[in-house]
Amino acid sequence: MTTRLLDRLMGTTAMAALAPDDGTRAGTGAGTRAGTGASAVGEPPAPTRPEAFGESYDPYWDDKAGVDHAKLATDHDELVKYKADNDDAVQASAARQADVPEELDGYEPELADDFQRPDGYEFDIPTDDPVLAAAREFAKKANLTKAEFKEMMGLRAGLDLAETEAMVAQQKVELEKLGTEGTARVDGLQKRLDARIKGDGESTLKGLLFTAAQVEEMEGLVKAGEGQGPGYSGAGRDTEDPPTLTPEKREKMSPAERLNYAHQNPVTKREAA
């Protein structure tokens, strides 16, 4: 291929000038060589530069030696390699762009398959989460692919896992403050709170049991409330009967208000608190 290219570039005139004398030129050049003497015998004619060799071909031309075939071939091979590499890059770019969604909701809040997650962990982020909306806006502006967006979701999941691990570690510290029966005390307290809720419901106060101090304080409140059972006379309180606590009123009360009401009023004076 390189030889054909060189032949085309040099032109037929230059090739004829570089061709060996096979006797066909004897009729036109013999008299001239005879008249100029022995110094002209055996000297090739000066090479003719091909018209196709513009200024950009200067590195490949020498007025005495003609075309630098070796350099031209080397640079030609490098050019072919560069084109092949560039074609691969173009194809890779096209393949990447195909994974960029046109719409924001094309970025799914999912984790990459190779994301290392603990057993039982589920990554769940609401579709209306403002953090997700901001992440999608950023991804679209940065022209991220779906795969790259999953990697970004992995950062969010990693933060969630780190926070959970820190919380579990802190809970362990708080349980140790409650002594060797810390876990049993918390479990028992949660059951006693649930027992004060009518039906199969669960007490929302259980969510307040995080630190050892909170557990101890709640134990005191529950114990005080249990001491004011059906036999509690209410001596020393206002003699006026408290307002009837209907289910509708109870729903509007906060957990703290319900507990306070239970402490202040005997069970016989209220309806199914």
Describe the structure concisely for a colleague.
The protein is mainly α and 273 residues long. Helix content is 53%, strand content 1%.
SSE inventory with pairings:
Elements: H1 2-18, H2 26-36, E1 61-62, E2 66-67, H3 69-97, H4 130-141, H5 146-177, H6 182-195, H7 212-226, H8 247-252, H9 255-264
Helix pairs in contact: 6-7
Provide the descriptors you would attach to this structure in a database record.
rod-shaped, disordered C terminus, 273 residues, mainly alpha, two-stranded antiparallel sheet
Structural commentary:
The chain is mostly helical. It is built from nine helices and two strands, in the order ααββααααααα. The protein has a two-stranded antiparallel ribbon. A hairpin with a 3-residue loop joins strand 1 and strand 2. Helix 6 crosses helix 7. The C terminus is likely disordered.
- How many distinct helices? 9
Structural class of the helices, strands and pairings? Answer: mainly alpha
Radius of gyration over C-alpha positions, nearest whole angstrom: 46 Å
Strands across the major sheet, in which order?
1-2
Q: State the end-to-end distance.
A: 97 Å
The low-confidence runs, each spanning 5 or more residues with pLDDT under 50, are 9-39, 230-240, 267-273
Query: What percentage of amino acids are in beta strands?
Result: under 5%
Global mean pLDDT: 73
Give me the count of strands: 2
Shape: rod-shaped
- Give the proportion of residues in helices: 40-55%
**Helix and strand element order:** HHEEHHHHHHH
Please describe the biggest sheet, giving its number of strands, its sense, and whether it closes into a barrel: 2 strands, antiparallel
